[in-house]
Specification:
Blueprint: H1 6-11, H2 18-28, E1 33-36, E2 43-46, H3 56-61, E3 64-65, E4 74-75
């Protein structure tokens, strides 16, 4: 398995728990996924998917109001 480069780990903000990383991902306004770093053991955020799923909490928060539908429908 490919390891996280140390330089990447050092540039990213570490979060002590998955919940903390998930809250930060939701607050950021981008589609980010938390992952446990194999270098430091903490959690970081990434926008890369590579076959990974987006956690349910983040998918639910991404439900957006579609202004073009005119019905107030929620779409993913």
């Amino acid at each position: 398995m490919k390891r996280t480069r140390l330089s990447v780990c050092r540039r990213k903000r570490p979060f002590p728990t998955l919940d903390d990383a998930t809250r930060a991902a939701l607050a950021g306004g981008w589609v980010l996924r938390p992952y446990r770093c194999d270098r430091c053991g903490r959690f970081h955020l990434t926008s890369r998917r590579r076959g990974r799923h987006t956690p349910l909490a983040i998918r639910r928060a991404l439900l957006l109001h579609d202004p073009s539908s005119g019905t107030g429908e929620t779409v993913l």
